[in-house]
Amino acid sequence: MNTGMNLKILMKTARNVVLEINDNEVYETKKTYEIFVNGEYRCSTNRVITSIYGLWPDTDYQVQIRCDSVVLAEDVFHTDYEFVTLDVTKFGAKGDGIQDDTTYIQAAIMACPRDSRVYFPKGTYKVTSIFLKSDLRIEFAKDAMLSADTDRDHFPTFPGLIESFDEEEEYNLGTWEGNPLIMYSGIITGVNVENVIIYGQGIIEGNSSKDNWWFNEKVMRGAFRPRLFFINHCKNVILQGLLFRNSPAWTLHPYFSDNIGFYDVAVENPHNSPNTDGLDPESCQNVDIVGVRFTLGDDCIALKSGKIYMGRKHKRPSKNITIRQCLMENGHGAVTIGSEMAGGVNNVIVKDCIFRHTDRGLRIKTRRGRGKDAILDEIVFENIHMDNVMTPFVVNAFYFCDPDGRTEYVQSKEYHPVDERTPLIKHLAFRNITCKDCHVAAAYFYGLPEKKIEFIEMKNISVTYAKNPRKDVPAMMNGIEPCSKLGIYANNIEKMSIENVVIAGQDGEAMTLLNIDYVK
């Protein structure tokens, strides 16, 4: 069958499957296709990443993609074995939005045997924190909602550091913006668990507002704000299909975890909600982010590895991260690296994504003081469509975060001696990217004079500007003025490769290249 379409099974459980319908489009397919399962019509879709629910365990299935009665692609799969289903309402949960269902849900989770399912039928389940265990599957039915309590006095707290008995080691549970600090446990929390899948058509509702978690957000009251989903030192964890919204702080926060997958998930937070990043893998490795939709007011995805204490002690980068077929809307940055990246970030590929109405597309934030282990390398963006992004590409080595962020040491553009506090940016590649209706600048790259960005590659890139562009600063650093329709500004780079880069409609020169050792 040679139809120009490729169908792939991305993941499956006993009850559902996630398909990738590749017709060479990004996020949305060229047409609306019909999906048939074992010869029967199941649903229609215009999404490249599409989920099917309501399957039976331990069963053979054939799936076909059709258009106008023509079979364009097909595949077969076998659903996983399932032993029993534990319905949370059989354990005392009411799902009425009034009773605190936390204890009853926790009972179902702890009683669930291997190869089984904890099931949430339709209803609103009020909870504080629920805790995961290993070898667990949780399914949320359509119209099932996990609804978070907003009274911080009802939440457990996670200490930042607990000293070992011999005073030689420490146990880290809580974290806030790159430091080991006390926090409230997440609405869904996992610590040292593995082999967990949480999936379905339900909603994880944080209920946050200016009346509770977002009030006076810069002040720690009791502990730092919880995440909607927080896992610490976990392995083989998958989230699929769910909608996460109105998070107290960062929405999805995997921390020091390996082999983590996010498939066909959605994250929604208001544009004015504080610190409500969508997905922040921190010191995580082997992460797949596929078919995820973000609409929020902070960074959609932020790759992190802690501030200098955690970077020096653990030297654990975030690495081997794939982001594809995602839609990112209305955030500060579509894909951000940093600024808490003292352990380094490397081997990241972002491809086949749409960035829409974000302040920046790629956003790298670092600064003096992140440390010598804060190395960024092999960061690749390709086949990206940007629409109404203020500044598509930003690399900022003078990010003015933290209490000392505006000091002379951090913000000086003069040469400083290289020491154990100096970060490094190595290889960045941007290929096959279209940016239409941008506002502020096509690209703004500013490295440290004492440790220049080693290599930036730009190939097959086009940038056009909005008819009535808004002025703003292209990067959060001292000493730059608001502007609009700036071309490419690059400063303090060892080597740049620029091939078939077209900037149309800028004010002034298309490229301003300063302190570049070699340009190809």
Automatic annotation (TrEMBL):
GO terms for biological process: carbohydrate metabolic process. GO terms for molecular function: polygalacturonase activity. It comes from Anaerosporobacter mobilis DSM 15930. Pfam families: Glyco_hydro_28 (PF00295), Pect-lyase_RHGA_epim (PF12708). Residues 87-129 form the Rhamnogalacturonase A/B/Epimerase-like pectate lyase domain. This is Polygalacturonase. InterPro entries: GH28_Enzymes (IPR051801), Glyco_hydro_28 (IPR000743), PbH1 (IPR006626), Pectin_lyas_fold (IPR012334), Pectin_lyase_fold/virulence (IPR011050), RHGA/B-epi-like_pectate_lyase (IPR024535). Belongs to the glycosyl hydrolase 28 family. Keywords: Glycosidase, Hydrolase. The keyword Hydrolase applies.
